[in-house]
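Moderator note: this is an archived Q&A kept for reference. The question asked for a predicted structure of one protein chain; the sequence and the answer are reproduced below.
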Amino acid sequence: MSLPARSDDPNAHERGEILGDTIPGLFADLDQRRATGTLVVSTAGVRRTVQLQGGRVQFAASTDRDDRFNQVLIKSGVITLKNLLRAVEVALATRDRLGEVLIKMKMMPRADVEKYVRMQVRQILFGIIERPAGQWSFEPGPIAAETIRLDLPGRVVAFEGVRRLASWTRAYEQVGGLNAEYLATNEAAGIADDLPLVPGERALLTMCRNPTSLGEMCEASQMGDFQVCRSVWGLLLASALMKA
C-alpha cells in the first residue's frame, strides 16, 4: 500500500493521479496529519469536494445528479414524489436549500433532514473511494461553515469505504497474498473502539496479536475471503494492523 507523495510544506497545494489505493490512503494520511482544507476529486467529468477539519471529514458535495439530496430522499422512501417536487420547486424559486424548505413546509422534521444529509455525505464519500481513476488535489486552508457536519475521522472513512468496495482485484492487490503476515499495532485496541467493526473483524485483530498470515485468517474467518481481504486492507489503513 502506498500513499501519494506530498510536499514538506504544510501549506502546499497537493495534486496527483488516482490509482487503486490513492483515495483511501489519502483519507487515512490526511487524518494522521490532522489536515484542514478541501480535497477535490475529479472523475469522468464529475467533481466531488470533501471538507476536512483536523483530519476529520466535515462535509462533502458532488456535481453528479445521482448524488443530490432529493435522490437520497426519494430512494429512501421517506417522502412522496408529489411532495418532493413541490419542495424542489420552492427551493429553486427561493434559492434556499432543499432541506430548509422541507422543514419550513413541515414535510420533514429537522432531525430527519440532518439524518439524510449525513447519509448523502457518506454516500458521496464512499462513491469517491469506489472510483479508481481520475485526478485529486488538496488545498490546505479554512473550510466553509456548514450547519450539518459529519465530523468523521478520515481513517474511519477509509476503513468503511474499502470495506464496501465491489472490486476484488483492488482489495487483493493491497493485502499482499496469502503468505503475507500481519500483526496488530500497539494502538489497535484504542483504534478498534473508534471503528464500526463487526465481530469477525474484531476476531481478526485478536488473531493478529501474534503474526498471522492472510491465508490463516481466511481459513479461520466465517466472513468469506473477499470480506477478509477488504477488512484487512481497512485495518491497515486505520493503523490497527501492520505487516509483520
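Archived answer notes: The chain has two domains: 1-154, 165-243.
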